[in-house]
Protein 1
Amino acid sequence: MCIKESLRLHPPAVGISRCCTQDIVLPDGRVIPKGVICIISIFGTHHNPSVWPDPEVYDPFRFDPENIKERSPLAFIPFSAGPRNCIGQTFAMTEMKVVLALTLLRFRVLPAGEEPRRKPELILRAEGRLWLRVEPLSAGPQ
């Protein structure tokens, strides 16, 4: 839940583009015609207050199984969705879990320096640097 909430707040890619394969009727009746290339803002979707109440607040319980039931599966798309989603999604999620578990087993990780500012490019980055303070949990061998 913590990893997913972190990916919601800071998705690796800020947007994607897709070509409509059929006409899409929007809720207000307007139509996106077949063949049009649409830009989908992953960052915008993940920070939309009509989908995510208090979108700037870090709340891992958004991903509690009971809370997921109420939400569209397309509300959370850090690796895109559908047939053109990220081929490395499963590997990336597994790697994040293993690295996080091994890191937290050995170290305390604390923020250091200023609050990072987002720098949206092709990939979301921190402007300047992202500073962390890492302290060993015990003095013995790891």
Note: The chain is about 25% helix and 20% strand.
Protein 2
Amino acid sequence: MTAVSSRIAALRQNPVALLMVMAAINYVGFASWSALLNNFAKESVAFSGRDMGLLQSIREIPGFLAFTAAAWILIMREQTLAYASLVVLGVGVALTGYFPTIIGLWMTTFIMSVGFHYYETMAQSLTLQIVPKAQAPRVLGRIGSAQAIGQLSAFGVIMLAWTLFNPSYETLFLVSGLVVVCAGIATALFFPRFNGPVVQRKGLVLRQRYWLYYALTFMVGARRQIFMAFGGFLLVEKFGFGVSKMALLLLITYAINTIAAPRLGGAIARFGERRTVMFENITLIIVFLGYAVTDNPVLAAFFFITDGVFFTLTIAQRTYFQKIADPADIAPTAGVAFTINHIAAVFIPAVFGFIWLWNPSAVFAIGCGIASVSLLLAFLIPDDPSPGNETTFEARGNAVQPAQ
């Protein structure tokens, strides 16, 4: 066997390699869709801020329904469902340019989002099952880097194609979607099946001792949707950023992330989940305040990049859960967590779309308040989370127990 063959064989047997490849494919599709969406919606469908808010709410419905993944894994393996989700994502992206109406964009967005959110649910479950706790922050950082590479590739190709050839939106969406479909099928054929060390419980799991994880998940979903729905739209509507500028901005963001994500994962391992979640929320408060008050397009672009880079730190919430969870709860809790994450996400973009029509700055001011609540919750994460030590309340209770 040649050296190349040996490396390929080793790669096939590496579950982290599988997770990184799937993450890159997933974000090639989602990044292509995201890079084109604001301009396509504005130029081809004549979207307003209200319309964009409604679209983003529709995009989040599959995330809200992520708990239904528990039913699918009764009849298929999680890894198989992840592959199928990538194909559905690609189909949704490929169809987008051919339906330049409000209803058409809602329909293709929903299809794309089903694939994206089911994949994310399965990927989170597989990662926390397969990767040991001590290695999780760094591995999640590497996966974040793979996501950034996928995004970087998508944004780079779109920017280059738009500059050199000025293709139609139909062509860009179609090619992007077909790449995802073909890559997802190829990955399924290349890698074997992997299993975690603990058999997962079937059905849904909702436990009182995970309440802080649920609360943090809810808050990150709420504040993230404000940025997702209106961060890029602000740059397009207020500052007139075109397709090439938006693609360049995203290109810069994920070029930074390819280098920064593994290092940020290492920082989580070094400083712990408590300090990391605090720092991430403080950063987001600054970003939202900046969005609310700035009239400078350069500063607005800087805040956009800052949020995109430091969002990687939200993986600290996953490693916090991994440390406090019963290992058999990871798969069933993944779907529950995604649903909780998307409770606010379903209505916030639509409601805030109306607020946008009144005062765009108010949207980001409210986001600052949401991030502040999330920061307060971060103080409840113990320095050394574990089963029985899920919050600082339990840590204090354990500290005052009399000696036996």
Note: The two ends are 61 Å apart (CA to CA).
